[in-house]
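Go through this chain for my students:
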Amino acid sequence: MSQHLNETYDYSAHHDHDEGTVGTLPGGAQTTGESSFSSVARKEWIHAVFGKSLQQPKGKGLAQIDEYLCTRIYIESDLYQGESLGITLSRLTLGLYVRSVKPGSEAALAGVLPQSVLVSINDIHLLAEPSKQALERIWQYEGLFASVSKYAKPYSKDAASFVMDLPKEDLMIQHPTRLTFIRNGQMYAVLLLSNPQYGIEWAPCGNFALVKRNDGSHTEIPRGSIIAGVNENPIDDLDHLTSATFLKEVMDLELPIDMLVCWPPATARSGYWERSEIAKHNSGSPQTNSKGYKPIFSKEHDGVKTTVHSLFSRAKKKPQPEIPKNDWGLELDDLATAVGSGEVLVPESSPEKANSVLTKVYLPCSHLEGRLLESWDVEQSLLYNLKYYWTMNMIGDSAGDFVGHRNLSDLFLDFPKPLFQDVLLPLIACCRHTSPGSPTAQERLHKMLFDEIINLAETKASFAPSMELIASSLQEIELRNILRRIREKRAASSPIVKNNSNFTFDELDKGAASPAKSPAKAKPVAEIAGSPSSIPQAASPTKKRFGLFGKKSNAKSPSAKTTSPKKSKSPKRNTKEQSKTIADAASPGGKALSLLLDEQDKQEQDRQIIGAREIMFAKTLKFGDELLEICQDIERSLLKTFPQRLAGWALQPWSSTKETALQHVTNSMRDRLMLCSNTEFLNPLDSDELIVGIDTTECYILPSAHFPVLLTFDCQDLENRESPNNVFGVQKFYRTTVEVMHVRCAGKAAVRRNFVVHASVGGSIQETNPSTHTDVETNTQMWDDGAALVFDTSSSWGPPQTVSLRLSESFVTNTGATGTKENKDKKQRYLEDIGVSWADLTSVVDEKAGGRIQKRTVVLTPKLLSSKISGYFDQHGELSDENRPKVENMEIKIRVTTQTLEMAPLIKKSDYTDGPLRKRSLLYKHDDDVRQDLFSIDFIKTCDAILKSCGLDLKLVTFRCIPMGDKQGFIEWVHGSVPLSELSRVVADSILGGKTKSPTSDASSISEENEKSMVALAGLSKYETLQRWNSDVTGSNSSGSAPNNPVQDYLRTFNFDVDAPYMIRKDAMDTYVKSCAGYCAITYILGVGDRHLDNLLLHQTGHFFHCDYSFILGNDPKKYLPVRITEEMVNGMGGKDSDGFVMFLSLTCAAFLTLRRSENVRHLLSMIRMMEGCYLPDIEKNQDIESAIMGVRNRLRLDLSEDEAIVFMEKLIEESSSSKMWLAVDAMHTLGKRF
């Protein structure tokens, strides 16, 4: 029973420290005697092992470990009179407790509390372990040694073949670790997710008196037992010194000796686990004693057989070479002895403190494989995430208020309500969690979360729509029904519903949560291309509906009658001025009455807004159902059976038949949407915004998987607010007029020449007519009509900053060499490039107060440069004169005028609001789990917040999304962004949808069309750049090569600065490099798959970002590759030798190292942990949630040092940017776009 109580010391040898004296060990380590012991920890340990009272002959402590033995020994005084007892007592330190926890360490984050007694590590019990051995094992697991000595010995001899040849990394902990503690009589467990060190200062629980020797005088006192009581002095007060003192006093008084001796449970020591593991490996019994330990059985006493082992005989040590010492000047073995005996205080575990070799080797720590979730309470995960999120968003003294919150109920009382808006998904997801604990714990957590969500819905009406949609998508039906009743109750009290006696929610909400109907088998596309009426019509059980491609009806839509309640305008309310007049007339209490009327007016307005929100949200659900039917019709019309699709479509290039079919279906969809154009409903992404109309001309079908639909809406705010919820801010409309004044040539070069100028502003291109006359005296070419080009643009990130110019010379040639006279006289114009130029419009678009630009005109003379300029910058972005490509010496003079425009008024405005009008585009996806997109965006936003809190702002842009069910939802469309598939194309007319082809390009038109991105095939992309207008587009006979740096050309088109590196405004280039770095690190950690070029986007401001998170956590429909860095992206930074690429590598590694910190690892892994029970595809369907968690943890490479992690990330980027596998990935995606 006491086979591992061998590391003890003779009492007399350490007597000089028993009085609490303090000494100094070599290296300056402080000796303390008894000062490291804690009476609280000692008592806790005794209760954990033996319980609050010792039971004979055996029993369990509060730790519930089987089982200790206890026996009573009674010796009459006449049996020892004049003699000694013949026993030697030795000091034995047992167990470890947490003396302190380093703030911010992994242990502190996990919730380890001081004064907690350690019970086990990954089910390896250390409760009754001698303190020295427990410390040695923990320090080995934490890796606090430089190497393993060639003279090292295993903890048990049988383990030699298992541990002696293992590398250092295998002896350390490289996986999540569960520590079990007991404190105040209560057991608790924490899960440490990062690798050591954990930041715990350990100390021994207490000294105990071990019966080390017995000379045979009194054999009833068993050797190897612990003194647990001497004549009514309990074990709480007995260490080796007090036990000897009490025994001596009793013997001096010649009183009978009444002793209790005990043996802690064998299973409470790590040796039992080691022998069990070795026995399992050898297919033996786990009860087999280790080789070399021979049991000696003493006689039975009170029915208890005590077992003693010959562990205390020490063989003479063989001389060994000197082992390097650590910073304390002690060998690790000696340091464990000193700390375990209470002689040394160790501030905390630290690798710098242990440079010695390992002299005793223990079996590697066991794994929690398959048991990770059992060790990780979802309530604690939610508590940690909320506290961490609160910390990152709090400002001032209140930032630390949450520290005292140790449970959710206390946290919910103080958590700021506005912050809940960003944590709705985990909050509702945890309601679905099935805890491995008791049913009582499950019910308590479920009720607490329900109460908080309901309270939030009642107090923050703007959150309620999102909460109901998320609850419905997660199939949390009970919560969804409660939220719906709250919505109906709130709406019933509003004046809008009270004034409309015929209004009910039943019709509006009908079918809102019903599952999607299975699409019926449709006729082939070939049959519908010419005849819209041949499409089968879907029947509705409740009303007659016109199919997507059915005949148009002049009557109003039936849905409009049922979904649009009759709106009764509320009586006009007094304005504040009118209220003040009434109040003044009612003197002397006029001022008080004025305030009362103002308050009543505000309350009435709030009730109107709340009522409008609830009614409009019900109509949003109805619109979602209608939209789902539209999308199912689209898919049935464009998709055939798989064999037909594979043979007839997927293997064939894009053709006019496909383009016609897509356009026909798009027009039919727009006709169907016209029936809903007068319907008002709440913006599903923004509950403070009302959709008052659909701009059907800006609605498109994307030829991608399941054919997502892009919808453009006219919107108004329910109530005025300074900044609408948008990615870049408030949308504004601008008009930029570019007037080409003249082109001046050197010498007499302008005589008899005709020039054409193409100008680009905000991504659209216009061209002048050929110049009409020449001023010989000034050598200039001019235009009679003034050559004024007008560009109307809109953006939410500011007015246009750059105008791009391209100068070409116009030639006319005969195209008919033979045939009739008409053919011979036929002329064709073609253009020959001369050069390009850019003009910085910063001085033109100086914004005035109020965010408007007054009409402002400036004259600019930009310098003409070669169109191939992107290939001549050095690694610093400089363009030296010797490297500058030569162009004809010419000058272009332009006059630019910019002003802000008002948005054109709508024909119909809302009766519920008079807020400003704006456009909003949303992408509707069906048959895709948008819940996974929502989770991924939350993950990216969390990483961004973490990086910003650490001073690393990587300019990350994220968009919003909301699920409308488990297979459909809305995603915010980011205007001003284009996919890299557009920028990387060779042909120039990709964005124009083939509208500007050269007459000679018919032979290559098919291959050109197949290179288009899905947005170009849909006909909605409007980005154009002059650098991509190769000579084929303008009709030149010269070869048109691809632009060698499309990313820089794109950024320069919108952010020109002649003095900046690469002639791109520094803030835009920095934004590009930083956002590339941020998304590179985060998407790698998240394991985002399916990274073809359509899913990588670049915004005009330089923000790079990803979209479409249908495959995450290492899943990919094709081959999973961990990082996507394209050659075009690297060239956009300036190439692999450039300063920009060096900055990119540095920032990517910095972000990776930051997210690997223990507090951040716990936060990110907790986000996945809380999604248990939601059955997201890549979290619980395609793999189990534990594999998803461990996949993220493995990608963080916690086994590497910071220097090794930097090398790893740099190598990963290098392999990705040069991998040819991405060519196959993009080719497979291109094939998949051919529906």
